[in-house]
Specification:
By secondary structure, this protein is an alpha/beta fold. Helix content is 40%, strand content 16%. Helix 1 runs antiparallel to helix 7.
Length: 232
Protein backbone atom coordinates (compact mmCIF):
# COMPACT_ATOMS: atom_id res chain seq x y z
CA UNK A 1 0.00 0.00 0.00
CA UNK A 2 1.50 3.41 -0.96
CA UNK A 3 2.87 5.50 1.90
CA UNK A 4 1.16 8.75 2.71
CA UNK A 5 3.19 11.79 1.64
CA UNK A 6 4.66 13.44 4.72
CA UNK A 7 4.21 17.18 5.32
CA UNK A 8 7.22 18.78 3.72
CA UNK A 9 9.39 21.76 4.58
CA UNK A 10 10.89 23.63 1.63
CA UNK A 11 14.35 25.10 2.26
CA UNK A 12 15.82 27.91 0.17
CA UNK A 13 19.44 28.96 0.68
CA UNK A 14 19.61 32.57 -0.59
CA UNK A 15 22.88 34.38 -1.19
CA UNK A 16 23.13 38.12 -0.47
CA UNK A 17 21.84 39.98 -3.49
CA UNK A 18 25.00 42.13 -3.67
CA UNK A 19 27.05 39.02 -4.37
CA UNK A 20 24.49 37.15 -6.44
CA UNK A 21 24.81 36.28 -10.12
CA UNK A 22 28.39 37.42 -10.61
CA UNK A 23 28.62 35.41 -13.83
CA UNK A 24 26.00 37.75 -15.29
CA UNK A 25 28.25 40.77 -14.75
CA UNK A 26 29.10 41.02 -18.45
CA UNK A 27 25.40 41.21 -19.34
CA UNK A 28 23.80 43.05 -16.41
CA UNK A 29 24.74 45.87 -14.05
CA UNK A 30 24.93 45.22 -10.33
CA UNK A 31 21.57 46.89 -9.77
CA UNK A 32 19.81 44.71 -12.31
CA UNK A 33 21.50 41.56 -10.96
CA UNK A 34 20.17 42.39 -7.48
CA UNK A 35 16.70 43.12 -8.85
CA UNK A 36 16.67 39.89 -10.83
CA UNK A 37 17.78 37.81 -7.83
CA UNK A 38 15.03 39.33 -5.68
CA UNK A 39 12.38 38.86 -8.37
CA UNK A 40 13.27 35.22 -8.96
CA UNK A 41 13.13 34.51 -5.23
CA UNK A 42 9.70 36.18 -5.01
CA UNK A 43 8.37 34.04 -7.87
CA UNK A 44 9.76 30.84 -6.31
CA UNK A 45 8.13 31.72 -2.99
CA UNK A 46 4.81 32.43 -4.72
CA UNK A 47 4.93 29.05 -6.45
CA UNK A 48 5.72 27.24 -3.20
CA UNK A 49 2.80 29.05 -1.59
CA UNK A 50 0.51 27.32 -4.08
CA UNK A 51 1.89 23.86 -3.33
CA UNK A 52 -0.49 21.47 -1.59
CA UNK A 53 2.41 19.42 -0.15
CA UNK A 54 4.75 22.12 1.17
CA UNK A 55 3.69 23.06 4.68
CA UNK A 56 6.40 25.55 5.60
CA UNK A 57 9.10 27.48 3.76
CA UNK A 58 12.46 28.10 5.43
CA UNK A 59 14.76 30.74 3.93
CA UNK A 60 18.42 30.66 4.95
CA UNK A 61 19.97 34.01 4.17
CA UNK A 62 21.98 36.97 5.37
CA UNK A 63 20.33 39.32 2.87
CA UNK A 64 18.43 42.11 4.72
CA UNK A 65 15.88 42.54 1.92
CA UNK A 66 14.79 38.92 2.26
CA UNK A 67 13.05 39.69 5.56
CA UNK A 68 10.21 41.55 3.83
CA UNK A 69 9.79 38.79 1.25
CA UNK A 70 9.71 36.18 4.01
CA UNK A 71 7.02 38.06 5.91
CA UNK A 72 5.00 38.61 2.74
CA UNK A 73 4.96 34.86 2.05
CA UNK A 74 4.75 33.68 5.70
CA UNK A 75 8.14 32.03 5.40
CA UNK A 76 10.55 31.51 8.29
CA UNK A 77 13.91 33.25 8.02
CA UNK A 78 17.10 31.62 9.31
CA UNK A 79 19.96 34.09 9.56
CA UNK A 80 23.07 33.22 7.56
CA UNK A 81 25.27 36.15 8.52
CA UNK A 82 28.54 34.30 7.87
CA UNK A 83 27.40 32.95 4.48
CA UNK A 84 29.66 29.91 4.09
CA UNK A 85 28.03 28.64 0.92
CA UNK A 86 24.96 26.82 -0.34
CA UNK A 87 25.72 23.46 1.26
CA UNK A 88 26.34 25.01 4.68
CA UNK A 89 23.13 27.04 4.41
CA UNK A 90 21.26 23.90 3.38
CA UNK A 91 22.46 22.12 6.53
CA UNK A 92 21.16 25.00 8.66
CA UNK A 93 17.78 24.71 6.98
CA UNK A 94 17.70 20.94 7.44
CA UNK A 95 18.51 21.29 11.13
CA UNK A 96 15.60 23.73 11.57
CA UNK A 97 13.22 21.47 9.63
CA UNK A 98 14.21 18.51 11.81
CA UNK A 99 13.78 20.58 14.97
CA UNK A 100 10.28 21.53 13.81
CA UNK A 101 9.44 17.83 13.47
CA UNK A 102 9.41 17.53 9.69
CA UNK A 103 10.38 14.16 8.27
CA UNK A 104 10.62 15.42 4.69
CA UNK A 105 12.47 18.44 3.33
CA UNK A 106 12.88 19.83 -0.16
CA UNK A 107 16.07 21.78 -0.79
CA UNK A 108 15.34 24.11 -3.66
CA UNK A 109 17.17 27.03 -5.33
CA UNK A 110 15.87 30.58 -5.38
CA UNK A 111 16.79 31.13 -9.04
CA UNK A 112 14.33 28.73 -10.73
CA UNK A 113 11.44 31.15 -11.34
CA UNK A 114 9.64 28.75 -13.70
CA UNK A 115 8.83 26.52 -10.71
CA UNK A 116 5.49 24.73 -11.09
CA UNK A 117 3.82 23.84 -7.75
CA UNK A 118 1.99 20.89 -9.32
CA UNK A 119 5.32 19.35 -10.33
CA UNK A 120 6.59 19.80 -6.78
CA UNK A 121 3.49 18.10 -5.39
CA UNK A 122 3.94 15.21 -7.82
CA UNK A 123 7.59 14.81 -6.85
CA UNK A 124 6.74 14.64 -3.15
CA UNK A 125 3.76 12.31 -3.63
CA UNK A 126 5.62 9.91 -5.92
CA UNK A 127 8.59 9.74 -3.57
CA UNK A 128 6.28 8.72 -0.72
CA UNK A 129 4.48 6.16 -2.86
CA UNK A 130 7.72 4.50 -3.92
CA UNK A 131 9.46 4.64 -0.54
CA UNK A 132 12.18 6.86 -1.97
CA UNK A 133 14.62 8.19 0.63
CA UNK A 134 16.58 10.59 -1.58
CA UNK A 135 15.19 12.34 -4.65
CA UNK A 136 17.86 14.09 -6.71
CA UNK A 137 16.63 16.67 -9.23
CA UNK A 138 19.22 17.48 -11.92
CA UNK A 139 19.78 20.74 -13.76
CA UNK A 140 19.32 21.00 -17.52
CA UNK A 141 23.00 20.16 -18.12
CA UNK A 142 22.72 16.86 -16.22
CA UNK A 143 25.74 17.79 -14.09
CA UNK A 144 24.40 19.94 -11.26
CA UNK A 145 21.66 19.38 -8.69
CA UNK A 146 18.74 21.81 -8.57
CA UNK A 147 16.79 20.15 -5.75
CA UNK A 148 17.05 17.43 -3.15
CA UNK A 149 14.15 15.69 -1.41
CA UNK A 150 15.24 13.97 1.78
CA UNK A 151 14.77 13.32 5.48
CA UNK A 152 16.17 16.43 7.24
CA UNK A 153 17.40 14.37 10.18
CA UNK A 154 18.95 11.66 8.00
CA UNK A 155 22.62 11.02 7.24
CA UNK A 156 22.67 12.52 3.75
CA UNK A 157 24.87 15.62 3.33
CA UNK A 158 24.19 18.15 0.54
CA UNK A 159 27.21 18.67 -1.72
CA UNK A 160 26.20 21.52 -4.02
CA UNK A 161 28.71 22.86 -6.52
CA UNK A 162 30.45 21.51 -9.64
CA UNK A 163 29.46 17.94 -10.55
CA UNK A 164 27.06 17.78 -7.62
CA UNK A 165 24.76 15.35 -9.42
CA UNK A 166 27.46 12.67 -9.56
CA UNK A 167 28.51 13.42 -5.97
CA UNK A 168 24.96 13.10 -4.67
CA UNK A 169 24.39 9.82 -6.52
CA UNK A 170 27.66 8.39 -5.21
CA UNK A 171 26.92 9.44 -1.63
CA UNK A 172 23.40 8.03 -1.66
CA UNK A 173 24.68 4.70 -3.00
CA UNK A 174 27.54 4.61 -0.49
CA UNK A 175 25.15 5.19 2.39
CA UNK A 176 22.82 2.45 1.21
CA UNK A 177 19.85 4.78 0.72
CA UNK A 178 16.97 4.28 -1.68
CA UNK A 179 17.54 7.05 -4.23
CA UNK A 180 16.59 8.08 -7.73
CA UNK A 181 17.20 10.92 -10.12
CA UNK A 182 13.84 12.65 -10.58
CA UNK A 183 13.48 15.08 -13.47
CA UNK A 184 11.28 18.08 -12.76
CA UNK A 185 10.98 20.22 -15.91
CA UNK A 186 10.28 23.49 -14.11
CA UNK A 187 13.38 23.00 -11.94
CA UNK A 188 15.81 22.27 -14.76
CA UNK A 189 16.65 25.91 -15.53
CA UNK A 190 18.51 27.90 -12.90
CA UNK A 191 19.98 31.25 -13.93
CA UNK A 192 23.73 31.68 -13.55
CA UNK A 193 25.06 32.67 -16.98
CA UNK A 194 24.06 34.82 -19.93
CA UNK A 195 23.12 31.64 -21.78
CA UNK A 196 20.81 30.67 -18.92
CA UNK A 197 19.26 34.13 -18.98
CA UNK A 198 18.57 33.92 -22.70
CA UNK A 199 16.99 30.50 -22.21
CA UNK A 200 14.82 31.91 -19.42
CA UNK A 201 13.59 34.70 -21.69
CA UNK A 202 12.65 32.14 -24.34
CA UNK A 203 10.93 29.90 -21.79
CA UNK A 204 8.94 32.80 -20.35
CA UNK A 205 7.88 33.73 -23.86
CA UNK A 206 6.30 30.28 -24.13
CA UNK A 207 4.80 30.15 -20.64
CA UNK A 208 2.54 33.21 -20.59
CA UNK A 209 1.89 34.54 -17.09
CA UNK A 210 4.40 32.44 -15.15
CA UNK A 211 7.02 34.23 -12.97
CA UNK A 212 5.47 37.73 -13.18
CA UNK A 213 8.06 39.49 -11.02
CA UNK A 214 10.92 38.03 -13.01
CA UNK A 215 9.20 39.02 -16.22
CA UNK A 216 8.81 42.56 -14.88
CA UNK A 217 12.53 42.92 -14.17
CA UNK A 218 13.42 41.47 -17.56
CA UNK A 219 11.18 44.06 -19.23
CA UNK A 220 12.99 46.81 -17.31
CA UNK A 221 16.31 45.43 -18.51
CA UNK A 222 15.13 45.38 -22.10
CA UNK A 223 13.87 48.96 -21.88
CA UNK A 224 17.07 50.22 -20.29
CA UNK A 225 19.38 49.41 -23.18
CA UNK A 226 19.20 50.22 -26.90
CA UNK A 227 21.05 46.96 -27.45
CA UNK A 228 19.51 44.49 -24.98
CA UNK A 229 21.96 41.96 -23.51
CA UNK A 230 19.32 39.24 -23.70
CA UNK A 231 17.00 38.26 -26.49
CA UNK A 232 14.18 35.83 -27.02
Amino acid sequence: MPSKALPTAAILPVKRFDGAKQRLASALSGGFRKALAAAMLADVLAALGRSARVEVVLIVSGEPAVRDLAQERSAQLIDDAREKGQSHAALSGLARAAALGYQRALLIPSDCPLLDPLEIDTLIANAAASGLEIGIVPDRHESGTNALLLDPSGPFQPQFGPDSLAKHKEQASRRGLEWAVKRVPSLELDVDTGEDLGELVRALGRSGARAPRTQGVLRQIERSSPRPPITA
